[in-house]
Amino acid sequence: MLVLTFRIGKYIYGLEARTVAEVVPPTVYKELPRSPDYVKGLFNYRGRVTPVVDLSMLAMDIPCASRMSTRTVIIDLAEIDENSKREEHFLGLLAENITETLKIADSDFEDAGLEILGAPWLGRVARVNGSMLQLLKPHKLLTEELRMALFSADGDIFPPGAQE
Hints:
Blueprint: E1 2-8, E2 11-16, E3 20-24, E4 39-45, E5 48-54, H1 55-60, E6 71-76, E7 79-80, E8 86-87, E9 90-103, E10 122-128, E11 131-136, H2 144-150
Parallel strand pairs: 2-11, 5-9
Antiparallel strand pairs: 1-2, 1-9, 3-6, 4-5, 6-9, 7-8, 10-11
């Protein structure tokens, strides 16, 4: 499988490239008052209001550093509704050191051996170039409460009644 790699602190993580819609430079985000600290804000991605999660803040309570290699990875948390219609739900992931993709055999990954309740988004691990690379589970990055707040049933970014 092809894996897009990045760093959170000194550790290497990855996303399966097939889950990535695009990698874009950081931009100006509209902050969301009273949202969790790891929610960077909202931005306009190809005409769609898109939330952005700071992966470093989510994992380590330290914001992503502003570097040349810091980027926003756009993933589509698409869902199929009852009419078999594909609902696009883009999510931006702000991460550091997004500089390469690696081909890693699926068989090289193994279960981490433990599941951390506060981090259900952590996935399988593989040994790569003397380091451990851990996959993220994109669909587990948002709590159900935050998912409901950001992606309402009608596909709007805000829940009913919350618009200006």
